[in-house]
Design a protein that fits this description.
6-stranded mixed sheet, about 375 residues, Aminopeptidase, 4-stranded antiparallel sheet, 19 strands, alpha+beta, single chain, Alpha-Beta Plaits
Amino acid sequence: MSYNELPADALSLLEEMCQIGAPTGQELNRALFIQQWMENVRPGAAVADEDDNVLVDLSAGQKYVWLLDAHTDTVFPDDHLHVRKQGTIWRCPGIYDNTVSCVLLMLLARQFLSSGQAPPVLISFTSGEEGAGNLRGMQGLMKRNAQKIQGAFAFDLHQSSVTVAAIGSERLLCRWAGAGGHSWKDFGQLSAIAIMAKWLASLETMLDWENGKLSYNLGEIRGGNGINIIATDAEVSLEVRSSDTALLIEAVHKIKQAGREHGTVNFDLIGRRPCGIVPQDWLGLKVLRDVHRELELGWTEQANSTNANAILAAGVPATCSGLAIGGDVHTRNEWLETRSLEKGWAKLQLLTARLSLHALGEKSCVSRSESPIV
């Protein structure tokens, strides 16, 4: 099947988008740019929602749609960024994760709006995928639209990557309290830092941690009031991850139980991502495989934590796959191979065309047994 060449303005649009900082929770400027850009294509085509998402419905009111998504947020706090060009390698925070996906989806929307065609497609540009965003944009979108979404593709990561399992996580702020006192006169009184340190040391052997199965990470540690003051407070942010809901629940329970055995502690939930499994017999996955085969993109199955987590948790079949080649994500040296946009653009067009060929009858769904942690 034929597809159009990459539009001539693709790279200039990419550079313009890259310069708009969009740290998680502050995606509004980028969302407004996308909405205004789409407004110039067709007035009213793009609609913003309460979660700083931008939606472009190409379906002309069809009952069921395929969702094509890219998240707009980046990981650094900058409100303005600069692209460094080294031939076909462009470097900028967020250029690969996930500005390039947003740009290609914008171009796809323009192509269909300009042609007058109405594929059964809803395109979304969503907030809150990175960091402590807790998939805010996608969770809100699914609450309002899940009933009409037949299946979904979150575009992120490498061109050849395909998410087959959604890694869930529970993020906790663990806070200890101690009696405090003077470092000499009150020596022996409970120190919040010392209590926390004993618990931290026990984490390494508390569970059967295994890469690809169950992991934990200590993000930030704070505590104490001075060199000669016995600490009255200490806290650490903790993330536990797994693609197995039952394993994740059990791990968090044991961690909390052990924490309470090490003094007075509070565990505050600061983030949660549901687990999920992509159905292997899902039509969307089969179509994607055919597109990869035709374009010789390779097929690398992975477990990831992406917007697909929230979609699967809502009972809608979904996967995540990339449109470009790049690296050094979440660093200031993040890079993109601009030549890879040609195949990414072809992948997006072919996938949309193939999905549009399939009549949407009864809406399919996935089991919610792998959904939110309780």
